Amino acid sequence: MAEAEVARVAMWDRIKDQATRGLQQAQGVRGGSGGHGPSGARSGGGSRAELVSALKSQLTTLKTELKSGAFRDASMAMCALVAAADGRVDPAERQHVESLILTNDVLQNFPADQLRQRFNKHVDQLSAGFVMGKAAVLQEVVKVAKKPTEARAVIQTGIVVAGADGFIEPAEEQIIREACAALGLSAAEFGI
Q: What CA–CA distance (Å, rounded) separates 22 from 115?
């Protein structure tokens, strides 16, 4: 069992290095901010789109390992946090994120009605009161903290959903950073 975990950690290190190299190549620089815009946002459309694509592919390679109920629940919580990152979720955004969830290759390990029910429950919590809802929903994310592969996959799922349009909003980056902190992971590991 310990050998399998060491192999997974080594694989995540390779994935992280590949994603970081891809991001750096897309930005055309090493270091630096790599982007411009309000509040120094680092989110360049192309670089984020490439990062999201790389993360999506890497998640797919782990599909057979990501079948636990804890991963399902934490992923739905992460998707809800991303959808509500700016403090609100309009019906069109809710439906858009729900469609991303239902067509995600890895999340197809789970029945669509389970995913939809959990996602909507978390969005409702966040809509009722963002600060209190966020604390409750982050507790669902934290349930995978002791499973490094699942914890990283939850963050990657959040990034894939946030970057589905080729751009990750600053509020989405912030909520992903908060989820990383709650899981004891470095946001820099994911290029955020």
A: 31
